[in-house]
Amino acid sequence: MSWFHEWFLDPFIGFGFMRRALYGSTLLCLSACPVGVFLTLRRMSLVGDAMSHAILPGAAFGFLLYGLDILPMTIGGLIAGLVVAVFAGAVSRLTIQKEDASMAAFYLISLALGVLIVSLRGSSIDLMHVLFGTVLALNHDALTLIASVAMLTLLTILLFWRALIAECLDPLFLRSVSRLGSPVHFIFLSLTVLNLVAGFQALGTLLSVGVMILPAVTSRFWTKSVAAMCILSILSGMLACISGLLFSFHFSLPSGPAIILSAGMFYLASATAVMLKNTYLKKFISH
Q1: According to DSSP H, which parts of 161-254 are helical?
Q2: What is the pTM of this model?
Q3: How far apart are CA 176 and CA 181, in angstroms?
Q4: Which residues, 6+ apart, have CB-to-CB distance to 282 below 8 Å?
Q5: Would you say 53 and 205 are in contact if contact means Cβ atoms under 8 Å apart?
Q6: Residue 258, C-beta contacts closer than 8 angstroms, at least 6 positions apart
Q7: Which of 68, 203, 72 is nearest to 131 (CA)?
């Protein structure tokens, strides 16, 4: 079993940066993956992608003023994400444009503005850090932020569990029978922004949405229960993080993309398994 110890345990036992990356990425899965489940149930998966870029100008502005300091970049990203969410919601409610279209418009504006702001002061290396993150360079402050966001997200989801599920199924009905309809929608968008900001510290703006969406859509292949989807997505996300970090360590690959590609492989494997099962089931029934 020496090979097992060498391949799977030694990287995390012998290197502090690998342990911090493991702690940070698995903590992120605890909150981001359930949020991803509700995004997919609402058919808002691409909205999550748009929101991941919406935080870029705020984080870039914090970088412009204070460099790679976690607190200004986090506060800036949070403010920018919430502003975009509010404005996109206002455009969709006060005009004929749908929310996904307004999100797409703000996504393009935010991405261009964020890259422009970073380029005013930083180099191409700084831009790559903001866009793709550095999960192997997580420090104590970043871990504290991710843990705090995970705790707040889980508590909020548990508190508004029934309302969140009701809005996924029929938001108009929820608004007609309860005053929680609009507040729950805004709370959910706030949780999305919070988790994207936390994911930004580890994976950057371009990859943070991957750990939110891919485990969620993978879990939906295997169960119809929302609670089971949340649990399965967390487990799938954590497994993707562990395998991605190990591949990154042993084969000198970029850690963030390795994690997202691991999650993507689990998705493709699940999709293939379900398609094969349905194909053979149809053949069996026809005979």
Answers
A1: 161-169, 171-177, 181-219, 226-251
A2: 0.86
A3: 8
A4: none
A5: yes
A6: 244, 245, 247, 248
A7: 203
